[in-house]
Design a protein that fits this description.
The complex is a heterodimer of chains A (302) and B (128). Chain A is mainly β. Chain A contains 3 helices and 12 strands; from the N terminus they run H-E-E-E-E-E-H-E-E-E-E-E-E-E-H. In chain A, a hairpin with a 6-residue loop joins strand 7 and strand 8. Classes of the chains: A mainly beta (302), B mainly alpha (128).
């Protein structure tokens, strides 16, 4: 019987995504949000204050010379203020013919310094990352990141610990129904490595601007389509595009009833150091005003 | 007699000055909306479908804070059936939805397509 590595690699990540989606659908009240289906790029949209957005972002790929893997980032995004969003990521991955492991966590904060909407809206992003070298979620590409980094056996790569600080300048515009976002990324391993740089740009828009006058699941205004491109820009020791990875990825997002969102993106590597293809699947649910759940006036905890 | 008239005149002047100064500080909620935005009218006015669609947009994005009946929570989330909203032009409301009031907890809804913001304006006007 022929061996199928995909069957062995995918279950953990995909099952985690499905279980979370099912649980959130079954046990939570309805909610809604207008989110872009970007996986790497950030726009200036922040979480609504008091809301908790839970999302799984799964990357499925096969590095050259290695086996397939599925890596999932479980994201908890909370709107602290209308101008400040805080996030926690828990990362893990499953590699075919290898193992399934937890690979670390990230804490990030995004702040809008300007209180008005402008043609270009800046957002400042600060992240602390505590992951192992086995992390394969590819939530950003910086420096000379390469597919060979993703090909190492888990037993070896997990020994490498990455305590990293990441700063991003997010610039984002809403022009007519389009969102256009540019991210400039700098990342520093707090141990020893030089600063590494990267970029992400994205554009997306709903398939139809006007909302339907009746509830519907498949109306065009429920779908957002676009594309993003991202890659590394070298580091302070070698600020060059040589041996850097770059990707372009069409995106589609679908806003389902009851606040569930699904997004999908096939990404294509543009250089020899990039993965040939990386498929991303996102499932998200927004919990409404979770602070009120514990407020006595709403029947919450006393 | 003359002294009395002067006193009355002085008091009147002070009262007038105080009234003018008070009037200068009591401004409309919408005074800071740029004139060109304020003057915009809703292209969907008079379309019942726009109100129905606006009600769904409201339900998706606004009801979680302002409540399903748009009367707010009586505290930080204000009622949208208010004199403030009644006194606003269509352009005022669309501008406010686009800008939000981040410092006071109201998100910017510039990410919503312009048609949906106008649908929302149509709905908000319909419930006054």
């Amino acid at each position: 019987m022929p061996h199928n590595p995909l069957k062995r690699a995918l279950p953990a990540a995909v099952w985690l995504t499905l279980v979370l989606a099912t649980l959130t659908l079954c046990f939570t009240p309805a909610a809604g949000a207008q989110e872009k289906p970007y996986f790497v790029t950030y726009s200036h949209d922040l979480e609504e204050p008091g809301n908790l957005d839970v999302e799984t972002k799964t990357a499925l790929a096969q590095p050259g010379g290695s086996t397939r893997y599925g890596a999932t980032a479980l994201e908890f995004e909370y709107g602290v203020r209308a101008w400040w969003t805080s996030e926690l990521y828990l990362d893990g991955q499953a590699t075919a013919q290898d193992s399934t492991i937890f690979t670390g966590f990230r804490i990030e904060n995004r702040v809008r310094p300007l209180m008005r909407d402008h043609i270009v809206n800046p957002v400042l992003y600060v992240e602390y990352e505590n992951t192992s070298g086995a992390d394969k979620t590819i939530l950003e590409v910086v420096g000379h990141d390469s597919q060979s980094d993703l090909a190492e056996p888990n037993g070896e790569s997990r020994r490498e610990h990455q305590h990293e600080a990441e700063l991003k300048l997010i610039l984002s515009s809403n022009v007519r129904d389009w969102n256009i976002s540019e991210n400039f990324i700098s990342e520093k391993n707090l141990g020893h490595d030089p600063w590494e740089f990267g970029y992400a740009i994205g554009a997306a828009r709903p398939l139809r601007g006007a909302a339907a006058s009746r509830s519907c699941t498949f109306c065009a205004d429920k779908f957002i389509a676009g594309a993003e491109a991202y890659g590394g820009l070298g580091n302070t020791a070698a600020l060059t595009l040589r041996d850097t990875s770059h990707y372009i990825a069409p995106l589609i997002g679908w806003q389902l009833p009851k606040g569930l969102r699904v997004s999908f993106s096939p990404g294509f590597g543009l250089t020899s150091t990039s993965l040939a293809r990386v498929y991303r699947v996102g499932v998200a649910y927004e919990f409404n005003q979770i602070g009120n759940w514990f407020h006595p006036a709403n029947g919450g905890a006393q | 007699m003359i002294r009395s008239h002067r006193k009355i005149l002085s008091l009147s002047s002070i009262a007038l000055f105080a009234t003018l100064a008070f009037a200068a500080t009591v401004h409309s909620h919408w005074d800071h909306v740029p004139a060109k935005d304020r003057a915009r009218s809703n292209p969907l006015t008079g379309q019942p479908q726009a109100v129905a669609a606006g009600a769904l947009v409201y339900s998706d994005h606004c009801a979680e804070c302002h409540k399903a009946d748009a009367r707010g929570d009586g505290h930080k989330r204000p009622s949208l059936r208010s004199d403030h909203v009644r006194s606003a032009t269509d352009g005022d409301l669309e501008w406010f939805l686009r800008q939000g009031d981040l410092a006071h907890g109201m998100p910017s809804w510039s990410s919503l397509p312009i048609e949906q913001r106008w649908q929302l304006v149509a709905y908000l006007k319909s419930i006054q």
